Amino acid sequence: MIVARPKSFEEIIRLIQNYKKVAVLGCGGCVTVRSIGGQKQAEELASLLRLWAKRQGKDVVVTEATLTRQCEPEFVESINDRANDWEVVISLACGVGVQCLAERFPRIKVLPGVDTIFMGATIEPGLYWERCVGCGECIVGETGGFCPVARCAKSLMNGPCGGSQGGRCEVSPDTPCVWQLIYERMEQLGMGEELDVIRPPKDWSVRPQRMIMEHLRKVDSRQ
Amino acid sequence: MPRKNPHSLETPTLEAPVNLTAGSHFERLLKQGKFVVTAELGPPKGAERAVVEKKAHLLKGYVDAVNITDCQTSVVRMSSIASAQILLEMGIEPIVQMTCRDRNRIALQADLLGAWALGMKNVLCLTGDHPKFGDHPGAKPVFDLDSIQLLQMLKTMREEKKMLSGTPLEGAPSFFLGAAENPFADPFPFRARRLAKKITAGAEFIQTQIVYNVDKFVQWMEEVRQKGLHKKAFILAGVAPLKSAGMAKYMKKNVPGMEVPDAIISRLEKKNSKAEGIEICLGIVEKLRQIEGLSGIHIMAVEWEEVVAQLVEKAGLLPRPASVGG
Ligand code: SF4
Ligand code: SF4
C-alpha cells in the first residue's frame, strides 16, 4: 500500500487562494484504506475550504468527488464532463494519482493535497512502515523475506554494518536493524551460509522504469 | 623533465624479501612480521593546508602510517586524497580512507585511480556513516556499493586490470587494501564471518573499532584465529584514550557500535583527568599486545593528535622502524 500524509490546511490555502473554481478529488485506493484521501476526507476538506472562503468573503465554488482509483485512466475518464468547470484540482491521491490527473487535464492546475512517503504495510492500527522501494529486482528470497534495499538505512547488500547494536539500526533507536532480522531468519531457516556469499553491486538502471505486458496490450488494441 | 612515477621509488631492503602487493612501507612492515602502529588524522573543516601539516608533524616518526579520514561522522572536511597528498610531500605514508557514502561506483573508481597516480598505496575501504550523523543531514546518501563490493572492485582492478564494467585499464592500481571491522557490533556471531567476507573480497589488513572491552575483543580474536583469518589478513586493534568520564559516557551512549565497560567509566569518575585516560589506554595496549595473531594497533585520537607521541612512547613502541625509500 502507498502511504501518504495530508498536507497542512495552511499550505493548501496558500496554493489555491487565487482561484474561484476548486475541486477536491479523493481516491478510493490506498489513501482510502489509511483514511487520508478517501471520500470522507475529500468531503471534509471541501467543507473546510467552503468555510474558509465564506469567512474571507471570497466567492469560491468548491466541488468534491472521489474516483475509484486515480491511477487508472478509465476511472479518471469518469470526471471528464465535470472537469471543464474547474480551474484547480486538489488531489488527495498519491503522487501517481496526482500525475494521472495532470496528464489527462492539461488545462487544469492539479495540486497534491497529500505528501506521498512510501510503499509500506500497516504494522498495527496507526503505525505504517516502509517495506519496498520498487528496486526492480526483488532479492528478499535470498534475505529471509526482509528487504535490505528499503529497510537498511544504507541499502547494504552484504550487511550488517558496524553500527548495528542490540537489534537496532544506527540511524535511530526506533528502527530495527534489518540485517539483524535477516541474519536471525536465515539461521532459523538453515540458510545462514548463504550470507557468507558476497553479493555483487546492484543494478540501479535507468529510472523511470516501465513495464509492458504484451498479452494485455493485444487485448487492449482489440477494444 | 617528466615527473617520475611515484611508485618506482623501490629501495632495496636489508630484510628478507616478502611478496608485496603495493610495496608500501606499512605493507612491508606487516609482512615482515613487525608490530605496527598507525594513527588517524582528521583533515580540517576548511581549505587550510597548514592544519594538515601541523597534525602530521605531531605524528611523524611515531607511527608507521597515517590514516586520513574521509569526512568522518559525515561532517564535511578536506578530502582524504588531497590531505594524503600533503602527507606524501612531507614524507609520511598515508592510508587513504574511502567511504561509499558520497561516491557512486564511477566516482570511487575515478578518485582511486587518481590516488594511485599520486603515489598513494594503502586504501582502507569503508561503507561510511549515514549522513544523518553529520553537518549536512539532508544529503542524499549514495551507498551504491558497500565496503565489501568496493574491496572486490579494487582487487579486480589490480588482478584483472579491468574496471568494474570490464573496460580495460590504462594502468591498473595495485593498492594494499584494508577494511574496518567492529567486533562489538551485532549480531556478534556474524562479525567474524563478515570479516571473512571482507578478506575474501580483498582486504589484506583490518583496523578495528576502538577497543575498550578487551574481554569481548579477546573472544572475537579467538573466533578469528579459529577461522584462520589472522593468517589471511593483518589485524590492527583500534585504541583511543578517553579525555574524561563525560566523554566515556557520551561514547557509550551515542556512538553506534561502541562499547565502554562500566569499570572504565568508574575509574575515570574517581580520577577524572586526561592522564588517567592515557593510563587506561596504555593498560589496554599492554593487554592487546599479548593477543596471539594481532599485528598492531591503530590509534584513533582524532582532534587529539598530540597525545599519539606520548602514548607510543609510554607503551615502549619507540623507535619506529625507519622507512625505506620514504
Ligand atoms: S528487493 Fe526490496 S525494494 Fe526491491 S522489489 Fe524486493 S522488496 Fe522491493
Ligand atoms: S544498522 Fe543495520 S539497518 Fe542500519 S544501516 Fe547498519 S546494517 Fe543497515
Description:
The complex is a heterodimer of chains A (223) and B (326). In chain A, strands 3-2-4-5 form a four-stranded parallel β-sheet, with helices on both faces. A three-stranded antiparallel β-sheet of chain A has the order 1-6-7. Chain A has two domains: 116 residues, Rossmann fold, CATH 3.40.50; 63 residues, no CATH class. The longest helix of chain A is centred in the N-terminal third of the chain and has 17 residues. Chain A has 223 residues and is an alpha/beta fold. The mean pLDDT of chain A is 92. Chain A starts with a strand and ends with a helix. Chain B is of the alpha/beta class. Chain B has one domain: TIM Barrel (Alpha-Beta Barrel). In chain B, strands 1-2-3-4-5-6-7-8 form an eight-stranded parallel β-barrel, surrounded by six helices. In chain B, helix 3 links the parallel strand 2 and strand 3. The radius of gyration of chain B is 19 Å and the shape is globular. The model of chain B has no long low-confidence stretch (mean pLDDT 93). Classes of the chains: A alpha/beta (223), B alpha/beta (326). Chains A and B meet through helix 8 of A and helix 5 and helix 6 of B. Bound molecules: iron/sulfur cluster (2 copies). One iron/sulfur cluster binds next to helix 8 of chain A.
